[in-house]
Q: What sequence folds into this?
């Protein structure tokens, strides 16, 4: 429940703080004093859109902060889903900067508006005239049935099965479409794949083939040049090695006459050894060079084949051809295994459909089981609320599985005898809507773990004995829920555990809205003024005192 509310720099509110009672909190005040403004501030905590025009001081930021006691309410899992720290004491804060930037925090952790709405909607339920309009929507009416039937677990299971069915059906549908397209391309892809497979590509093969082919195509010239070089080095009496040998013998003969002659001999001997080694390698290379025209032709065919494939598939590397071959194998294989894949996907759809049907029937059965009870309880309450001829009928229509189930419910209502119940949007007036919504909130109050319920002038269009019964219902609801009720009726105001008064303060240069908790005597005066105007008589004051004391004794 809400333990503390702080509003700063919002509309006519410069600064306002409120510590609500755990039971029934009454808020009254003059028209335009700021009651709806306070409700608007609470709406920001619930994730409503913000506007910089609402800033009291356009140069300062607006801060709306609510503190909540969550003990006793099963909501921890929701915090875990949103990856938020959970504590029994929760603080929700909304800020609006002068530049129009808004920020939201839950326990000082920044959150987006969707997360804020998801958490806050489990902490507070604000009923306003907007809810009267919302009541005419079939989606909202279905929510009423689910809340009354306490279908949270069944609805969660159905939504999971519905999501699984959609995923399975989408996968199957995509496979069917893919199959049609693949069959059209199958023959062409098979031809391309066969061509690539017959080529027996190895990847990065082309470079080596071209080098080997270049060598073979010039083999005759290479062999001739190697043989000439070998002849020059060692093939005759005037060869380089022979001349080196003669020169070495001369230096060896004179080496005894000087040390430097010995050094020249050694250097020349080293050169001779190296030249002999080179000569041997040249002769070996010459013997290995083959002139093989058949091999040249085979290599040329292989190179031409690879170049043809490169040009055909518009790639530059033979490695890319292997990638294309792999992709074609997948495409062709998919078509070859198409019947098996389609059968498997269809089986998954059928399995998901059976699970969906089972959970849909369970959810639908739970809904149908409570329709007559809802009709009876609400009709009984409407009679107590001064509508003796009221009749409510909840119609059910079966539909194909949708995100919310296989049911569409429609609340049909009639306030007058002899008039057949019609859809709410066609028959209910504002006052009738308010009483109907109160009856709905009342029967749902103990079905949902909702800490705080706010009623914004739900007493519109009622008076007298009916208003007393409305107050009784609110007081009854406050035994298990914190209730905050904005009202203009003294019969309801007198039943509050505490009474707050909203007023305009004109003492400064600018008017501001303020709120204060009324003492017993102040409550008597406020109730008396609600009965008889600004200057109530002694009799009216006594009446107000009697009404208040009676309700205080009952609490």
A:
């Amino acid at each position: 429940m809400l333990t503390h509310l702080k509003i700063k720099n919002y509309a006519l509110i410069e600064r306002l703080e409120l510590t609500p009672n755990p039971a029934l909190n009454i808020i009254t005040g003059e028209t335009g004093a700021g009651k709806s403004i306070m409700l608007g501030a609470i709406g920001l905590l619930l994730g409503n859109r913000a506007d910089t025009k609402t800033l009291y001081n356009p140069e300062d930021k607006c801060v709306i902060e609510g503190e909540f006691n969550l003990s006793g309410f099963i909501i921890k899992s929701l915090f875990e889903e949103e990856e938020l720290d959970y504590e029994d004491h929760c603080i929700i804060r909304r800020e609006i900067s002068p530049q129009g930037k808004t920020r939201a925090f839950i326990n000082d952790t920044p959150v987006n508006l969707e997360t804020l709405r998801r958490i806050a909607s489990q902490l507070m339920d604000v009923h306003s005239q907007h809810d009267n309009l919302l009541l005419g929507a079939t989606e909202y009416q279905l929510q009423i049935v689910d809340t009354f039937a306490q279908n949270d677990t069944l609805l969660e299971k159905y939504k999971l099965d519905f999501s699984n069915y959609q995923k399975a059906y989408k996968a199957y549908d995509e496979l069917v479409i893919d199959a049609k397209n693949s069959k059209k391309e199958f023959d062409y892809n098979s031809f391309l794949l066969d061509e690539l497979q017959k080529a027996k590509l190895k990847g990065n093969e082309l470079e080596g083939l071209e080098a080997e082919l270049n060598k073979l195509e010039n083999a005759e010239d290479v062999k001739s040049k190697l043989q000439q070089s070998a002849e020059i080095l060692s093939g005759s009496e005037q060869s380089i090695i022979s001349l080196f040998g003669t020169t070495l013998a001369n230096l060896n003969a004179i080496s005894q006459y000087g040390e430097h002659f010995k050094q020249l001999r050694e250097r020349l001997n080293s050169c001779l050894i190296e030249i002999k080694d080179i000569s041997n390698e040249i002769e070996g290379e010459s013997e290995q060079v083959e002139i093989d025209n058949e091999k040249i032709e085979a290599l040329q065919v292989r190179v031409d084949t690879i170049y043809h494939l490169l040009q055909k598939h518009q790639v530059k590397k033979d490695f890319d051809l292997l990638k294309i071959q792999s992709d074609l194998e997948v495409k062709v294989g998919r078509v070859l295994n198409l019947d098996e894949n389609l059968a498997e996907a269809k089986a998954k759809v059928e399995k998901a459909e059976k699970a969906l049907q089972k959970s849909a029937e369970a959810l639908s059965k739970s809904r149908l089981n409570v329709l007559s009870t809802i009709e009876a309880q609400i009709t009984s309450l409407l009679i107590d609320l001064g509508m003796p001829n009221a009749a409510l009928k909840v119609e059910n229509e079966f539909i194909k599985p949708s995100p919310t189930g296989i049911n569409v419910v429609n609340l049909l209502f009639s306030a007058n005898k002899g008039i057949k119940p019609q859809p709410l949007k066609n028959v209910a007036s504002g006052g009738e809507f308010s009483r109907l919504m109160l009856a709905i909130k009342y029967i749902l109050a103990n079905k949902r773990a909702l800490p705080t319920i706010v009623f914004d002038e739900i007493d519109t269009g009622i008076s007298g004995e009916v208003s007393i019964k409305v107050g009784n219902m609110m007081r009854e609801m406050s035994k298990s829920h914190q209730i905050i009720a904005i009202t203009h009726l003294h019969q309801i105001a007198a039943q509050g555990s505490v009474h707050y008064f909203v007023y305009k303060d004109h003492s400064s240069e600018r008017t501001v809205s303020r709120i204060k908790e009324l003492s017993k005597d102040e409550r008597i005066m406020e109730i008396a003024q609600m009965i008889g105007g600004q200057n109530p008589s002694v009799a009216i004051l006594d009446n107000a005192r009697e009404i208040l004391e009676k309700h205080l004794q009952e609490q």
Observations:
- The chain has a mean pLDDT of 87.
- The first helix runs from residue 35 to 45.
- The longest strand covers residues 391-402.
